[in-house]
TrEMBL record:
Gene3D superfamilies associated with the record: lambda repressor-like DNA-binding domains
Domain HTH cro/C1-type: 16-75
Top-level taxonomic group: Bacteria
A Pfam family it matches: HTH_31
Cited CDD domains: HTH_XRE
Protein name (record): Helix-turn-helix domain-containing protein
Organism this protein belongs to: Micromonospora mirobrigensis
InterPro entries hit by this protein: Cro/C1-type_HTH, Lambda_DNA-bd_dom_sf
GO molecular function: DNA binding
């Protein structure tokens, strides 16, 4: 066996079978899951991928990851052996370093002394990573609103006016932080995700957002597909 680091496509061929076996899926079972997603990878195609006889497009990579319920980068990272991955002909890195780069935690890396990663193109990377920060801020702010709303409902159940007032204040504060997160996204020309109508209406009514007309209302679809 060659000692050269494997390319991501070579690791993916192996990892598809690793994760398929963990999910106790046959090749046909995986093909059926992909068909449910609207994909067209057949049992034969999946077998060829696992045998290294067929490549995988970007679309197919994401379909495989979705059907196997794994984060997409895990399909080209060998966690069991920890073997280096050749992300480019002259760049072979430990899987953990590749994972951190692929998930937006580190800039592009080169191999340094003693196998460590040396960051490169930091300024360019940080500009690109702005979107990651925006989405993390929005996610944390949304979770805080959920928690504040739960606390408000609990307070209302107690009937204590002072407790209720405090919970309402905390709820509005959380909505204000979320409005700031959404405003930051709009300012950076990033489409903000939709939020429940009640949240958006409060943010608009209280003037919590700089861009109230850019707030998106999300409403779940009914069983018949209608909103």
């Amino acid at each position: 066996m060659s000692d050269r680091p494997r390319r991501p496509s070579e690791v993916l061929a192996e990892q598809v079978k690793v994760w398929r076996d963990q999910r106790k899926l046959s090749a046909q079972g995986l093909a059926d899951r992909i068909k449910e997603l609207g994909g067209s990878l057949s049992r034969v195609a999946i077998s060829k991928i696992e045998n290294g006889d067929r490549g995988v497009s970007l679309d197919e990579w994401l379909q495989l990851a979705h059907a196997l319920a794994v984060p997409p980068p895990l399909l080209f990272i060998d966690l069991k052996t920890g073997a280096d991955i050749a992300i480019a002909p002259n760049v072979a890195l430990h899987p953990w370093l590749v994972w951190r780069w692929a998930t937006g935690q580190e800039p592009p890396l080169l191999r340094g002394a003693l196998g460590s990663g040396v960051v490169t193109r930091v300024e360019e990377y940080e500009r690109a990573r702005t979107a990651v920060h925006l989405y993390k801020h929005e996610q944390n702010a949304s979770e805080a609103v959920h928690q504040a709303l739960t606390a408000l409902r609990s307070a209302e159940y107690t009937g204590d006016s002072a407790v209720i007032a405090g919970a309402r204040s905390a709820h509005v504060k959380a909505l204000g932080e979320l409005a700031t997160a959404l405003d930051d996204m709009v300012a950076m020309d990033v489409q903000p995700p939709g939020k429940p109508r009640a949240w958006v209406e409060i943010m608009r009514e209280l003037g919590l957002s700089k861009y109230p007309d850019r707030l998106v209302i999300w409403e779940p679809k009914g069983a018949d597909g209608e909103r």
